[in-house]
């Protein structure tokens, strides 16, 4: 038994919360009121997945490129640098958070990437740093903030909303048909 050993909580289904996008939220809520909560959840999951694609593409498009070569060695010749390219470390994930009982869609640097695909200094590159010094007092410089992820997310907002609405429109007949078949099976079983 761990800390907080109380009765186990059971969740019937996970919550789906779409932050922002009031028009999309109201459309999904209205469909859920008309056709049931299962339709609302399924449509919201499809909308989140569809909205994730344009956001990820926008972040990749806006990501700055680091030089693949640099001056190294005694002769200071151009040689391949061992600098990971930022675009390779941009990823996305869509999963259910069991602890909070919500579906999460994320896009950004080092999201859903294994250790070999990560850009380890991403936090310094995007958030910047103050002036750094070693213990001996040597200056290691200051990194300027380059928050291209937030800018790309802002630019992709309308495209993401359009993708979400399109996914809901495409999936609605399928989900309504599932509900209709479920009700028909229940009616046939009761007679």
Structural notes for this entry:
There is one protein chain. A hairpin with a 4-residue loop joins strand 3 (90-97) and strand 4 (102-109). The chain has 191 residues and is α+β, with helices and mostly antiparallel strands. Helix 2 (37-62) packs antiparallel against helix 5. The chain has helices at 22-35, 37-62, 122-127, 148-155, 157-190; strands at residues 69-72, 77-80, 90-97, 102-109, 132-133, 139-141. The model is unreliable at 1-17 (pLDDT under 50). The N and C termini lie far apart (48 Å).
Question: Concise description?
Answer:
By secondary structure, this protein is α+β, with helices and mostly antiparallel strands. The chain is built from five helices and six strands. Mean pLDDT is 76; it is low at 1-17.
List keywords for this structure.
single chain, 191 residues, alpha+beta, two-stranded antiparallel sheet, 15% strand, disordered N terminus
Largest sheet, spatial ordering of strands: 1-2
Radius of gyration computed on alpha carbons:
24 Å
What assembly state would you assign to the polypeptide chains in this entry? Answer: single chain
The SSE order reads: HHEEEEHEEHH
Distance between the termini: 48 Å
Question: Topology of this structure?
Answer:
Blueprint: H1 22-35, H2 37-62, E1 69-72, E2 77-80, E3 90-97, E4 102-109, H3 122-127, E5 132-133, E6 139-141, H4 148-155, H5 157-190
Antiparallel strand pairs: 1-2, 3-4, 5-6
Helix pairs in contact: 1-2, 2-4, 2-5
């Amino acid at each position: 038994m761990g800390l907080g050993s109380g009765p186990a909580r059971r969740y019937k289904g996970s919550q789906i919360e779409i932050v922002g996008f009031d028009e999309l939220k109201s459309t999904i809520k209205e469909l859920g009121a008309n056709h049931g909560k299962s339709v609302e959840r399924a449509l919201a999951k499809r909308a989140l997945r569809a909205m994730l694609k344009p956001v990820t593409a926008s972040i990749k498009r806006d990501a700055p490129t680091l030089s693949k070569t640099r001056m190294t060695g005694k002769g200071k010749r151009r040689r391949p640098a061992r600098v990971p390219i930022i675009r390779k470390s941009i990823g996305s994930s869509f999963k259910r958070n069991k602890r909070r009982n919500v579906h999460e869609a994320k896009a950004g640097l080092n999201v859903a990437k294994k250790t070999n695909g990560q850009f380890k200094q991403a936090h310094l590159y995007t958030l910047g740093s103050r002036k750094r010094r070693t213990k001996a007092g040597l200056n290691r410089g200051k990194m300027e903030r380059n928050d291209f992820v937030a800018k790309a997310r802002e630019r992709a907002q309308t495209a993401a909303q359009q993708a979400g609405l399109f996914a809901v429109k495409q999936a609605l007949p399928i989900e309504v048909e599932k509900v209709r078949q479920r009700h028909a099976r229940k009616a046939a079983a009761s007679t």
